[in-house]
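Async update (no meeting this week)

Hi team, since we skipped the sync, here's where things stand on the single-chain job. The sequence we agreed to prioritize is pasted below, unchanged from the tracker. I ran it this morning and attached the output directly underneath so nobody has to dig for it. Comments welcome in thread, and please keep replies under the output.
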Amino acid sequence: AALNSLPALVELDLTSAPVNDDGLKRIGAMHNLERLYVSYSDISDSGMAALEKLDRLQVLELDGTDIGDAGLRSVGKLTGLRELGLNSCRFTDKGLDSLAGLQHLEVLELVRTATGDEGIAALANLSSLVALNLNYTAIDDHALDSLTKVQKLRDLRLNMAKVTDAGVGELASM
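Output:
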C-alpha cells in the first residue's frame, strides 16, 4: 500500500525481493510505471495478469522467475514494451508466439531458456528488434534463417548455441 502512495513513480526495481503474485496485484495498480524489474522474485504465471493494464510500461525484467507460456500471454498484451528480459524462465517455444504483437520491442533477452528454432520463427516479425540475446539456448542453424527477416537486428548473441560454419554463412547475408 505504501508504494501506491507514490503516484509519480515510473521505475520500480524489486530484483531478488520476496515479492510474489500478491505483490504483482499491487504493482498492477501503479499506472505510471515505465520500468519494472522483478527478476529473481517469487512471481508466477498467475500473477502476470495483474500487469496487463500497465500501458506505459516500456521495460520489464522477469529473469529467473517462474514465468511460463501462460505468463507470456500476459506479457504479450504489454504492447508498449521496448525491452524484455526473460533469462532463465521456463516458457516453451509455443509461448513465444504470444510476443508476436510486441512491435515496439527493441531488446529481448532469452539466455538459458528452452528457446529453439520454432520460438525464433515466432519472433521473426518483431520489426523493431535491434538486440537479441540467445546465449545458452537450443537454437541451431535453422533458426538463423528466421533471424534474417529481422532487418533492424544489430546485436545478436549466440554463446553456446548450436550454430555451425554453415550458420555463420547465413549470418553473413544479414
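Quick observations from my side:
The longest strand covers residues 11-13.
The mean pLDDT is 92.
Reply here if anything looks off.
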